[in-house]
What we know:
Layout (H helix, E strand, L loop, with lengths): L1 H30 L1 H12 L8 H24 L2
Helix pairs in contact: 2-3
Amino acid sequence: xxxxxxxxxxxxxxxxxxxxxxxxxxxxxxxxxxxxxxxxxxxxxxxxxxxxxxxxxxxxxxxxxxxxxxxxxxxxxx
Length: 78
């Protein structure tokens, strides 16, 4: 029963994504990945307490986005 509920939530999230997909695509075309990633970094870069688990995950996410921001422009030149 719990599995069914989790699956329903997962399915609903997927439906919401699919309904938004074209809007997301248009937004990316209009603004570009680099600007979106920069915004995400600015928005997420608010680590107050590195000792708790959530902050560690947030730090990992920020590090990954920084890597993406560094690597992504290189893909345009390939």
